[in-house]
Structure formats: structure tokens, C-alpha cells
Amino acid sequence: MLRLQLPLPERYTSATSDELATRVRAAKETLGDSLFILGHHYQRDEVMAFADARGDSFQLSRLAQGRPEARTIVFCGVHFMAESADILTGDDQAVILPDLNAGCSMADMADLDSVEEAWDVLGEVVDTERVVPITYMNSSAALKAFVGRNGGAVCTSTNARAVLEWALGRGRWADDGPRGEQVLFFPDQHLGRNTGYAMGFTEADMAVWDPRREQGGLTEAELKERTFLLWRGHCSVHQRFSPDHVAAFRAEHPDGLVVAHPECSHEVCAVADAVGSTDFIVRYVDEAPPGATIAVGTEIHLVNRLDAETPDKTVVSLDPLVCPCSTMFRIDLPHLAWVLENLVEGRVVNQITVDADTAEWAKVALERMLAIT
Ligand code: 13P
Ligand code: SF4
Predict the structure, then answer these.
(1) Does pLDDT of 250 surpass 80?
(2) Which of 153, 213, 227, 359 could be joined to 354 by an S-S link, Cβ 3.0–4.6 Å?
């Protein structure tokens, strides 16, 4: 059901940042241990200042699951993350997203109808018993449930390789044999492609399924022979980075380092010094030698925070004109103050709930991921 974010009362929209920070602090104090605030690395600094824990989407899903004593989890991130937290937490816990408009344009690129249609069309050409559906965490609970029902798993940018190795019976799972011979990977083609390359596959093993075209725009031979069927989805923040940005940075900083998120295109990842999730990027910067200049291909709030928090290194965006993730940016102090002050008054606003049937199967897919990693 589509729920729209209500406009906030004036006492939130007209308050200064200092006033709001004081009110958020007071509400947090009142709520004590019954409240747990999670902050994704892409959140604004003024919101992150109140997060009890920070992390990437994988860490946050684990952290949400590991706090059964918290009555309320306020998730400063985007909708699919709050849904996953609701699925992984107890029935007596409420998960709140401070602004209901904080979605993810990539997650919206694959919906249940189009994935089910793709699965049926695929089933006319290949035996889908031998295809493992894998969904990136950045997807709706309905898609996670689809994957759970069909023998697949969720992955995040931290564990995509482990999950794909599990699916194809490689690496640690080589002795178990393959669960399938092909994977249908959605919604981010780049994470699927970059991970496939890292596992030793080549472009010849991959094909892009375009949901707007008949049979995904692929021939029967491609559907039968390609190991990776990659959904045509992308993140508009990460797709902006280009190899030209890497070349320009290297020309200016010959000793500089480049680290990119795997949602960037393969052309960027191929010329970066390192590729990994937001948590990997945080560790990469931390472990870089003092004095290093590091260009980072990810969302600007994390890049700026890393620069501020590591004064002995210079951390810059790989694209000098990069824009923020507009949906992550929706979570701000007025919305945080609004949800917390309502909680203090005994009202739960903006609760994210997943219906029981969807939650049951999505949990299967999420727990498979947690067991694999
Ligand atoms: P992480 O899995 O690195 O947290 O990434 C989530 C995300 O939305 C990146 O765009
Ligand atoms: Fe979605 Fe991209 Fe924003 Fe991540 S950065 S939440 S993938 S739109």
C-alpha cells in the first residue's frame, strides 16, 4: 500500500538546527534503551550525530537483528533497509523510517510483476529449477520473498561474491556442487557484473535482461548459455562515475588511490585500485598510508565524512560534480525530531511493516544470506 509522507507541523519546519538537535537529544534521553537509531553511511552528518550505530546495509541488517531489547528501531536510511530490519526483528519491535519518501530509485527498477514475468518467460526456454534468483538488498520485500520461494538468496555489496559462489557451487561451496547453473540477478546489473568478473567470469558469460523488451531482449541461445542474467537496473548516483574521472584524478595525483563501490560500472571498477561496499571503503581509507590522497567513487556524504574524520589523509569524490543520493538526503533533523517526539508521547509514526506471508519468505532469503556470510 502506497503511503505518503505527511507534511511536518510548523514546530519542526521552522525550528533552527540547534533547536532541533537539542530536542532530538532530549527525546533520545527520555526513550533510553527502548530506542535504537541506525544510520547508513550515506546519511547527513547532523543525522549521523544521533545514530547509535553506523554501517553499510549488511551491517545494519545484522545490527537490527541483534537488538531484541529495543522496542523501536529508527532506521536512518532508505525504505528497503527499514523493511529488511522489520523482517529480521521481533513482532514486538517497531521499525520507523523518518521520511516515507526515502525510497531507492534502483530498487524501483525491478518490481514483483516484471520479475515474475521474466521468470515465466525464462521458464519457457530453460529449466528454472537450475536458475538461482539472487536479489540485491536494494529491492522490495516482495522481491526478497520471490527469491526465498524460489531457492535463492539476498546479497549485499559486502557479500555478493560469497552468495554468488554459493549459488553456483564455487569457492567454499565447490564440494557441495552447484545449486544452479545460472543466476538471475536483480536489480543492479553493475554489482552482478563486477562480482562475476571478480569470480573469473567474462562478458561472454553474462547477458543483460531488459524488462522492457520481449524475452528480455535476449535470444534463446543467450538465455540458455549465459551464466549471469543481469537485470537492467542501476544506481543513478554510482553510474555517474566514469573512467575519465579516474584518468583525470590520476593525472593530477599520480600516487593517489582510487576506491569504488561495486554499483559503479565495470569500466570504472576495472581501473580502480580497490572495489568494495561502503564498509570496505571506510576500512580502505582507514588503512591507507598517512598523507595519501584517495578518490572515492560513492555517495558524497560518506566521502566528505571520511575526509573530515581522517585529517592525515585527503579524501575526495572521484567525480568533482557528484550529486548526493536524493532519497537518503530526505532523512533530516526535522523528520528525526518528529518521529522521536511522537514516540515520547506514545505514538509510533511512519512504522514500516511487511505483511506476514511476504515477511516469512523474505526472511528465508535474508537468513540464507546471513548463513552464507
Ligand atoms: P552498501 O551495501 O554498501 O551499504 O550500499 C547500499 C547502497 O544503497 C549503495 O548505494
Ligand atoms: Fe539507491 Fe543509489 Fe541511493 Fe543507494 S545510492 S539508496 S542504490 S539510489
Answers:
(1) yes
(2) 359
